[in-house]
Specification:
single chain; 508 residues; mainly alpha; Sodium/glucose cotransporter; 19 helices
Length: 508
């Protein structure tokens, strides 16, 4: 191992140790299941904002977006970022306040529990189905996070992939099992800071290595369609291809996913005071817009670095920040430590998402299935043991699924995002803003959205293609919304008590 690799390893080890330290610190603050899963609704506005966005921005922020921009220019990465930025803002603006208010009024500590209590579902069928949806989509989503960590360590240090994956997974599991929601939230805050540092340092070094901003822009302008939002650069031919309106709509549809993300909705529910959500919204939206913009521009800079001979042509464009960090590490001990922080940023992007997913999945099993649906009662201490044990079991399943190093991280993330967006997004919106909706409509919408994601992805799109090749989230979201409206209108109105609570929350 070279001195640069040792420095990088040291920086990463310090980072991992710090995450474990946070878990130990918050372990003693979890006195109940409510504390473990929702932090007792004690999050401050800044932690709420950065935790929500860090748990959202997985490794695709530091790998996917720059990689796409490096190869094909602004169009694909840009429209995706615009969709996500708009979705982020609207989620904070129209959903956050109402779901914080509603979940507090109903004393709901998980998203599935909120669904059941919102519509007076005494059998907790809604909660159980929602829990199944979370398990179906979150376990492979978590597995993709474990896989990304394993690939990073394996690439950097020549470690066995499975060993590297298991080590990183163990760290995530330990601090999350010990510290619960508060540990996950505060580690997410730290991880968002590290991601920010990584983006800034990589951008600065990249621009300098490419020969300055003028050289970067001159290179981008010389590539056909590279800076266009309606054309996409073709690296194989050197030409450009038109970017269809259908494709643009498909990418913008990513923003719809925010309304149904359980790990983000939980942050809204956990803030200490509703009035602080406005500050959280401004902080979160600003960070998302800037971080995605910088990530995309790093791809543009990376292409200029290759043109200038400062970096070889990348076989895998998604490793661009890893490669730039490697170049930085050759400039002395301090630079190597800085490179380690950058690589820890990639690790942080993945871990900040995986810990939140583990919490959401384990709460679905222990709280929503065991306690609410099957009626298994636990004491406070028993509930904590079950919650933590469930998380360990889910982690083992996710690690098993992640054992194959050739698995596609981003394909899984895209599909899971669509699944949650379609199954939960319409249900959340109608729960908060349509008084006439009922439990049967919500159930129909949830099932329709979840099933249509599979049907469209594996049935409609590959067989019909063309206009039907759109991202599965959009058609599934629309069909789920239609199902909620139609079934709600065909069945009876919700009980008067449910309607009164809706009016009470609306008037707050």
């Amino acid at each position: 191992m070279t001195s640069a690799q040792i420095c990088i390893m040291l920086a990463i080890v310090v980072y991992l140790a710090a995450m474990l330290g946070v878990g130990v610190w918050f372990a003693k603050k979890n006195n109940s299941v409510d504390d473990f899963y929702l932090g007792g609704r004690k999050l401050g506005p800044f932690v709420t904002a950065m935790s929500a966005e860090a748990s959202d921005m997985s490794s695709w922020l530091l790998m996917g977006l720059p990689g796409v921009a490096y190869l094909s220019g602004l169009a694909e990465a840009g429209w995706t970022a615009i969709g996500l930025a708009v979705g982020t803002y609207l989620n904070w603006l129209i959903v956050a306040r109402r779901i914080r208010r509603y979940s507090t009024r109903l004393d709901a500590i998980t998203v599935p529990q909120f669904f059941s209590k919102r519509w007076g579902d005494e059998r907790n069928l809604l909660s159980a189905i929602a829990a199944v949806v979370i398990i179906v989509f979150f376990i492979p989503y978590t597995a993709s996070g474990f896989s990304a960590c394993g690939k990073l360590f394996s690439t950097l240090f020549g470690m066995d992939y499975v060993t590297a994956m298991l080590i990183s997974a163990a760290v995530i599991v330990i601090y999350t099992v010990m510290g619960g929601f508060l540990a996950a939230s505060f580690t997410d805050l730290v991880q968002s800071i590290i991601m920010t540092v990584a983006l800034i340092v990589v951008l600065g070094f990249g621009v300098t290595s490419a020969g300055g901003m003028d050289a970067v822009m001159s290179n981008a302008q010389s590539l056909a369609g590279y800076l266009s939002m309606v054309n996409i650069h073709d690296p194989a031919t050197g030409g450009s291809n038109p970017y269809s309106l259908l494709t643009i709509c498909s990418l913008l549809a990513w923003g719809l996913g925010y309304f149904g993300m359980p790990h983000i909705l939980l942050r809204f529910m956990a803030i200490e005071e509703e009035k602080k959500l406005a500050l959280s919204r401004r902080v979160a939206t600003t960070w998302v817009v800037i971080s995605m913009g910088v990530a995309i521009f790093i791809g543009v800079v990376g292409n200029a670095m290759t043109k200038a001979g400062a970096m070889e042509q990348l076989a895998d464009a998604e490793t661009i920040i890893v490669q730039i960090a490697s170049l930085i590490s050759h400039h002395g001990v301090l630079a190597a430590l800085l490179a380690g922080i950058i690589l820890a940023g990639i690790l942080a992007a993945t871990m900040s998402t995986a810990d939140s997913q583990l919490l959401a999945a384990s709460s679905s099993v222990s709280q929503n299935l065991f306690t609410e649906f099957f009626g298994v009662k636990f004491t406070g201490k028993q509930g904590m043991v079950v919650a933590r044990g469930t998380m360990v079991v889910i982690s083992l399943v996710a690690a098993f699924l992640a054992r194959d190093p050739s698995s596609s991280v981003f394909r899984v993330v895209s599909f899971a995002w669509a699944g949650f967006g379609a199954a939960f997004g319409p249900v959340v919106l109608f729960a908060l803003f349509w008084k006439r909706s009922n439990k049967w409509g919500a159930l129909a919408g949830m099932i329709t959205g979840g099933v249509m994601v599979f049907v469209w992805k594996y049935g409609v799109a590959p067989r019909l293609g063309g206009v039907f090749g759109i991202y599965e989230l959009l058609p599934a979201f629309i069909m789920a919304s239609v199902a909620i409206v139609v079934v709600s209108l065909l069945t009876g109105e919700p009980d008067q008590k449910i309607q009164d609570i809706y009016d009470e929350v609306k008037a707050m």
